[in-house]
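ok so for the tutorial part 2 we go from a plain amino acid sequence to predicted structure tokens. step 1 is just haveing the sequence, like this:
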Amino acid sequence: MRRVETDPTGHRIKAEAAAWLARLRSEERRRADDAGFRAWLAEDARHAQAFERVTSAWEASGAQALVRDARPAAMRPVRRRALAIGATAVLALIAAMGLGILHGVSTDSYATGAGEQRRIALSDGSHVILDTQTRIRVTLGEERRSVELLQGRAHFEVATDALRPFLVRAGDRQVIAVGTAFDVSRQGDRVSVVLLEGRIEVQGASVTAQPIARLASPGARITFRPVGTIVQDHPDLAEVTAWQNGREVFDDQPLASAVAEMNRYTRRPIVIADEALASRRISGVYSTGDPEAFARSISILMPARVEFTPTQILLRAAEEN
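step 2 — the prediction. this is what the tokens look like for a chain of 321 residues:
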């Protein structure tokens, strides 16, 4: 879906959003400003959307703070003039960034359903492969390329452009690249990044974020878990990229974990009826498009039997001989 910003009313709303951004981040912010901002949000549903986009554009710029008057307080202009200067700075920066906030730059959204994968060629020469049940939003500007991974998993092959960094945001994490290849996965609050080629930098998505990690060797992976822990490792590349060819590779994983992964690709889920069976471990290479074959293999490899119904594939423990 392509969206081009040419509506004057939309431009006015974005200008107001930029002004509110400057006011709320100003050193002169007061309680009345908070109340006024809430009232402005309540006026029109588009106000909240515009403010979110302006804020995202500002944060993606890598700026550390709004432009503020550095002179002593006694020599500063009146508060409203300071706010006007701040809003102008925000508007100027966003316009220069070429992110489509104030100019006619298009934004594209892409998605896949259960069991679907999709390869997308972007206008800058980059390519993206979307895994099953994945959603992204892409904005390509004159000075910056930006992708938001809303859910799922995606592979990025970034066209080299030293003047336009390629940003991929997943939750509160952000990957910065120029010309490289990498995977990003987002499942709830769990975010994982795997470098396949080149170099990337991983950081928080806030304005003042500092680099968390620089991945420079193929196979390097960093995973952010919901509990706040960060894990870095070097998994087997053939395993972590198998999904791009419609396969999943399991290496001594609990059956419950393998089933959860296979279920991402089917509308008829596999259900494990016994906890003892769920804890058994499995290894092998399986086609993501054939959950029935996966279930049958389990009934052969383990003391289990499989039952097929119109709505689910049931795995039950069987007595060992």
